[in-house]
Amino acid sequence: MAVLSSAVVAGAAWAAYAFAQEPASAPRVETQVAQPQAAAASDADKALIEKGRYLAAAADCIACHTAKGGKPFAGGLGIDSPIGKIYSTNITPDKTTGIGDYTFQDFDNAVRRGVAKNGSSLYPAMPYVSYAKVKPSDVKALYAYFMRGVQPVEQANKPTDIVWPLSMRWPLRFWRMTFAPDAITDDSPLPNDPIVRGRYLVEGLAHCSACHTPRGVGLQEKSLTDDGHTFLSGGVIDGYLAKNLRGDSKDGLGTWSEADIVAFLKGGRTAHSAAFGGMTEVVENSTQHMSDADLAAIAAYLKTLKPVDTAGSALTANPAAAAALRAGTDRSNGALTFLDNCAACHRTSGVGYSETFPALALSSAVNSDDPTSLIHLVLQGGEMPWTKAAPTHYGMPGFADRLTNRDIADVLTFVRSSWGNHAPAVTADQVAKVRGAVKAPAQPTRAENP
Ligand code: HEC
Ligand code: HEC
Ligand code: HEC
C-alpha cells in the first residue's frame, strides 16, 4: 500500500512537474495551415472552421503539438521532465495516427477534461485545467477546425520516456480529481463587456496562468481565477520568471497602460520593454494573431488585478548613476562591466532606445525580486519576437563565455540598484545555479577577476 500511495504522489508530482516545463523552445511555424480538400463546405461550415482556426491560435495549440521543424500539429515535441520526456501527440485528422476518428465527445474529453479516447488520463502538460473554462460552442469550432481545416499528417505518436512505475497513468486520475476544475456547461453568449471577454480568454484558451501563476505542493497552479493576490503573480518556467502581471507598480503591470499591454502582445515590444524567454514564442505563435478587440479585452481585464503588495509604491527616476558612469567616478566591477558590455545598447542612462533596445531603468522585469530571468538572459542572450506588427527585429548577445559568475552578479546588482531601480542584489551563487540549470558554457577563467 505504501508503494502504491507513493506512486500516486510521485505520479501526480511528475505529471505536474512536466506541466511546468512548457517548452520555451516552441518551433516558429506558420499558423496558416494549407487547406485540405474538405468536401464542399457550406458558408456556415466555413465560418465555423475559421472561428476554430482563430481560437486555436489564441489557445496556442501549435506551440506544443508541433516538433521543431515538424509538420503543424503532428506532435512529437518532447517536453522535459527529470525522469524522462513526455511527447505531445498528433492532433491532425489522420485516421490512423492522429485524431481523425475522434467524435466531438472524445475531443472535448481530451481538451477540457484531460481524458484520452481510450479512457486514460493525460499529463497536465496539456493545459486542460485552463481549457475547462472554454465554452462548449468554442470547443465545437475548434473541433470543426481540427477535423476539416487542418491537413492530415501520418506520424505515429512517441511513447513517453518515463520509466515504470512513474509511467503508470492511473495516478494522474487522482491528480485530475484533486486539481482540475469541471468543464463548464454554460454556453450562453458573453455579455458585451471587454473585461468579461478578457477574463474568459486569460483564464481559458490563452492559459496565461499556466506560466504566470505560482505552483503549490502538488505543483498545481495555486489559483485558476483572480483570488486577489496569487493569480498571475509570477511563476518560474523553463528557467525564466513568467513575471507578476498584477497591479504592482514596481514589478507588475501597475505602470503599464492598456495600450502598452496591447502593443506588447501584438508586436512583442513597447517603447520601453521587449518580450524575451518563453514569452517570445507566446507572442509569435499566439497573441500576435489575436484581434485588436480581444487584445484590448485582455489588457482591460489584466488592469483589474489588484497589486500583491498593496503598500508598494512606484519607483522614481534617479539621475545619479548615469552621471557617475559618464564622469567615470564609479569604478566598481558592476559599473565597469556595464560600461564595457551593456551601455552601447542600453545606454549609460539605462533608458535604451525606443522599440529597439529595452529600457533597464524602472523596468518591471528588472525590478522583480527573483532574478532568474535576468541571469538567464545575460548568459544566453535573446531575440525579440518576429511579428507582423513590428517586423524589424533586434537581439542581445549572450555573455556566458565572456563574463564570470561574479561579473554577471555584479553587473545585475548594479542594474538593479541604479537609475531609480530597487531590487535585491544578485549573488555569484545564484548565477552559478542558473548557469548549470540552463546548461550554459562554463565561466571563463580570468586571473585578474576580483
Ligand atoms: C502546453 C502544451 C500544450 C498545449 C498548449 C496544448 N496541448 Fe494538447 N497535449 C499536450 C501534451 C503534452 C499532450 C499529451 C499528454 C499525454 O501524453 O498525457 C496533449 C494531448 C492532447 C490531446 C489528446 C490526444 C490523444 O492522442 O489522445 C488532444 C486531443 C489535444 N492535446 C488537443 C489540443 C488542442 C486542441 C489544443 C489547443 C486548444 C492543445 N492540445 C494545446 C500539450 C499541449
Ligand atoms: C509559456 C509560458 C507563458 C505563457 C503561456 C504566457 N507568458 Fe507572459 N511571460 C512569460 C515569461 C517567461 C515572461 C518574462 C519575459 C518577458 O518579460 O518578456 C513573460 C512576460 C509577460 C509580460 C511582460 C511583463 C513585464 O512587466 O515585462 C506580459 C505583459 C505577459 N507576459 C502577458 C501574458 C499574457 C496576457 C499571457 C496570456 C495571453 C501570457 N503572458 C502567457 C511566459 C509566458
Ligand atoms: C547589442 C545590444 C545589446 C547589448 C550589448 C546588451 N543588450 Fe540587453 N537587451 C538587448 C535587446 C535587443 C533586448 C531584448 C531581448 C529580447 O527581446 O529577447 C535586451 C534585453 C535586456 C533585458 C530585459 C529588459 C526588459 O525590461 O525587458 C535586460 C535586463 C538586459 N537586456 C540587460 C543587459 C545587460 C546587463 C547587458 C550587458 C551585460 C546587456 N543587456 C547587453 C540588447 C542588448
Automatic annotation (TrEMBL):
What are the binding positions for heme c 2 in this chain?
A: 208, 211-212
Could you give the cofactor binding note from the entry?
A: Binds 3 heme c groups covalently per subunit.
Q: Where does heme c 1 bind?
A: 61, 64-65
Signal peptide start-end: 1-20
List where in the cell it is found. Cell membrane
A single Gene Ontology MF term assigned here is:
iron ion binding
Entry protein name: C-type cytochrome
Q: Which residues form the Cytochrome c domain?
A: 47-150, 193-306, 329-419
Q: Which PROSITE patterns match?
A: CYTC (PS51007)
Protein species of origin: Paraburkholderia acidisoli
InterPro entries in alphabetical order: Cyt_c-like_dom (IPR009056), Cyt_c-like_dom_sf (IPR036909), Cyt_C_IC (IPR008168), Cytochrome_c-type_DH (IPR051459), Membr-bd_ADH_cyt_c (IPR014353)
